[in-house]
Amino acid sequence: MGSKGTSSGDGGGGGDTTPPSPPTSFSHEPSAISTSPPPLQPPRAPPRAADRDTEPLSDLILKSSNNYIIQEKIKILSKQYGLLRRTWSDGSCFYRALLFSYLACKQENLGQMQDRQAEVFRLMQCVEVSTKRFYQLEWGEAYLLKPEFLSSLVFEFYCLVNSVANGLTSEKLYERSLEDPSSGTIMYFLRVLTEVEIRTQDIYRPFIPKDMDVVQYCRKKVRGVFPEVEAKVEALQI
Question: Which of 69, 157, 177, 200 is the most exposed place for a label (fewest CB within 10 A)?
Fold first, then answer.
């Protein structure tokens, strides 16, 4: 999920060698946005055997011999999951794991869907809705985003998703995620989408602690510390 490799498709595995152009049919009119996006497409094949980049989840029990609580949690996870993949411990583990799972890991992942381009279109429609909501919120200095930079983040995200839809394998995707430890811009973008979702949907309000409002919560729990990305944003906006 590295930001430097996602738009070039040079990781092999069947991906395109040049950045694709986003579908031109994405509407910018609110009335044209579908309120019922296409459902997830059915998988085209069963899950593959374990990849060489995985390791047994049970190994973590041995490595956590001095932590009983961690051991018990791993045992609970082992009832459903047998393998794990390592990722960068940079504060964005959740976002990296979620994106990798959606793109390449689970049976219903994008790479296994029968109509992958339809799913890409559905996903980008959802992204478009979120970006419209982004501009309806007050941000102050948060994320330092101007329209042109947000558009570049959307395009970079689209290139990554489209490369998987065009055949980029889970092994190559995983290699990219390890080769670029910063991979900051896409993680940055996922945090933006997360905050937009939390701040615009009331279903999350009950989970916000009583001693803070939703903006304070997002400032503390969602906005990551990405000095290299902030520097890139500022440089692009000078």
Answer: 69
Q: Which class for 68: exposed (0-12), middle (13-18), buried (19 or more C-beta within 10 A)?
A: exposed
Tally of CB atoms within 10 A around 21 = 10
Tokens linked to 138: 């007050």
> Does pTM top 0.70 for this prediction?
no
pLDDT digit string (tens) for 8-53?
333 333 444 444 455 444 443 333 334 344 444 443 333 344 455 7
Pull the structure tokens for residue 30. 């609110």
